[in-house]
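User: My collaborator sent over this chain with a note saying "see what the structure looks like." That's all I know about it. Can you take a look?
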Amino acid sequence: MSIAYDQTLDVKGARCPMPLVKSRKAVNELPVGQVLRVIATDRGSVADFQGWVKTARNVELLAQETVTEGGQELFVHYLKRTA
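Assistant: Without extra context I'll predict from the sequence alone. Here is the result:
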């Protein structure tokens, strides 16, 4: 998947709800229109991010993907600040 992004937040090893908590803070620090790539190891982050963007007014979930790196499954989320 090839999505341009402006910053990366690595939350590998963090368990629910920390990937979401740290991502909320990082998105709020982004200028409007920029994209944050979040790399997580918590499988639950997939549903957490989908639920968050349904209620958030300032973020759009552009894409999610699962990749394998060094034998470890990673969940990658692309979030765009919209307001």
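A starting point for your reply to your collaborator: The chain is about 30% helix and 40% strand.
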